[in-house]
Amino acid sequence: MERSILDLKLKDKHRSSDIRHKTKLINAGKHAQQLKWKWAGHMIRTTGERWTKLVTTWKGPKGKRGRGRPIDRWTDDLRKVAGDNWIEAAGDRAQWRQLEEAYTREGP
Fold first, then answer.
1. Domain ranges of the chain
2. Could you give the 3-state DSSP secondary structure of residue 36?
3. pTM for the complete prediction?
4. DSSP notation for 38-105
5. Which residues, 6 or more positions from 30, have their beta carbon under 8 angstroms from its beta carbon?
6. What is the pLDDT along the chain (108 residues), one digit of tens a residue?
7. 41 within 8 A of 90, measured Cβ to Cβ
8. What is the DSSP string of 3-35?
């Protein structure tokens, strides 16, 4: 789509980053990652027992799990970057913002 905006062909060999800079469009995947990261930090810093916070920190039912590969949870991506204590890291805004750059650069 971006190439068609600038009327470029694939054989012209233009980098996607240069095309995105010229069209001033944002990378949708990276933007979605940033929104997820910011929402996670905001949600953890909220006060009280809110439903979103309880559901996110819930460990799941006890007992045996079914066969097959475990399903990736929403927080697994956050744990890869911030570690197992991501909830404590989200409480500190400065540290959380530093980790955001690493998260959006790396991707889930």
1. 27-106
2. helix
3. 0.70
4. HHHHHHHH--S--HHHHHHH----SSPPPSSSPPPPTTHHHHHHH-TTHHHHHHSHHHHHHHHHHHHH
5. 104
6. 777 777 777 777 777 777 777 777 777 888 898 999 999 999 988 888 888 888 888 877 788 878 888 778 888 888 888 888 888 888 888 888 888 888 877 555
7. yes
8. HHHHT--GGG---HHHHHHHHTPPPHHHHHHHH
